[in-house]
Structure formats: C-alpha cells, structure tokens
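Following the same procedure, backbone shapes were mapped to integers, as reproduced here:
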Amino acid sequence: MHCIWRKVRRPFLYPACTQECKWEVYDATLAGCLKCGAGHICKPCAFEGKCPLENCDDGSRVCTITGYVLPEVRYSSEEYLDTICFDGHNNNSNDNKNCFNNSSNSRHNIPIHQQLDTEITKCIDRLLSSSEARRCRKEENSFQGKRLYKNLMKSIKHFKMRNPDRLPNMCDLLTSMMYQEKRLNFVHPASTSLKERCAQNILVCLLDLKQKGLKVHIGNKLQDLVCGLMYLLRTGISYNNYELLAPIPEIAQCLPIETRLKNYFNINSKVITSVENEVKLAFRDYHQRSSLSVMTGSG
C-alpha cells in the first residue's frame, strides 16, 4: 500500500529527512512522509516497530504519528501491592524467614515490597545516573561522535575524488551517511519518570517471581537480577502468552553498552542471559507444578 501512496504523492523534495518528517496518515497503522517519502508502520508489539509512543492516562500507549493505540494487556500496579499476601509474614515458615534476609534489624519492620522498591531504585540509579554511568555515557558518545566524524571525512574524500571540480554539499553527504549508518548508538540520559516506570515494572516482576517460589535476597544477587531485568525491559519477557516483564522499549536508548558493564560497573554482561533463563525457568516450573497438582486433584 505504501508503494501506491508514493506514486500518488511523488516527487519528493528530499531523499531522506535530516530533521522531523512531515507525516500524512493514510491508513489506521500507516503513514508516509510528504518530504522524503519514507513510510511508517505501526505494529502491535512495541519492540517490533519504531513508533514514538506516548503514555495515556489509562496506562495505554499510543503512536504519536498515526494515533494507533497498541493492543497491550494493561494491569493495575496497585493490584499486586494491595492484595498480595507475603509469605514472609508467616512465622511458621522457616524458608520464608530466610527470604529477603538482611543483616540490619531495622528492616524487619519494613514491608518486603518497600524494601525491594528501595533496593531496585538504588540499582537503577547506579546503572543510569551514577558517576560511573555518566563517565560510561560520555566515553560511548565520544566514540560514536569520532566514528561519525571519520565516516564523514571519508565521504567527503570520495566525493572530491569523483568530482574534483565541484564543492560537496555537506547536507546531502551527511544525510546519505546517516541513512546508511545503522549502528550509531548514542546513549541518552534517563528521565526520572522513565526510571520510575522501570522500577515499577521490575518490582511487579519480582513480586510475581516470589509468588512463584523464587527466593529473592537483597544484596549482590539482587543487583545482578535488577541489572539483567533492566536490559530485558527493552523487549520484555513472555512465556506461553503470559507477560512476565512488561516492555519499555525506550530504555534501550539510555542503557550503557553491554560490553562496558564490566569496566564501569563490575557486572558481567552474561548476567542478562542468565537472568532471562532464571526467570523463565521459575515460571515454567511453577506452571508445571500447577498443572500436575490439577491433574492429581482431578484424578
């Protein structure tokens, strides 16, 4: 359908827009740029498309280009915090006494979800807003800027070799280079609201994991777990059509490059894969036990 729209609207002024595109919506999930002819397609899963998303009051997310509302399952965070029954309150369970164990006696009187929320916020701040995070971001952006400069100089040199009597059009060269260069990945600072959304999604996931039988201890293990979940927020985690971790695709622009985790944060980048496997394994074991108990009860 986009090919038909291009034939109707051409010719276009630019090969590719260097600034904002001027979008025209011609279908529920389709739009085209009137300046360069680029196409935009909204997809049901946020991590599969490139939609600029806005959060609505009811928790839904809408594409700012077409107005398409993503068909996502929305849930109330208060549902998990207000009605959940924490096993740690049961004095008869020795296993639950050890869960979320901490050397500080002052924490025993603090609700578990508040302890988790505090520790998760600390881990996220360290990963996104600490002095290490700022130094990592500065070095990565400097590297990307030098790479961009090097490629631009190379493009100018090739142009002068092909056209010795002409002056290069810097706008055209820069536009063409930016279009061809797909791997430029500048790291952006994270807003307070974005960090709060990340903390909320991770808290809901950890509380759900605890209900499924995974013991989450406050300490170094929790830091690795939160770090892994932060990177998994880019696409979210699902298992058998069940959303384990709600995605926040825009966090991908704020996270440190994975290869720099060891140097700046002393965190092994393999923790991302191990956390994903651990989370899925916990949910799989829980569902298998639930299915087995149902079959045994019905038998």
The beta strands are 23-27, 30-33, 39-41, 53-55, 61-63, 237-239, 242-245. The two ends are 55 Å apart (CA to CA). Residues 77-109 have pLDDT under 50 and may be disordered. Residues 152 and 174 are 7 Å apart (CA to CA).
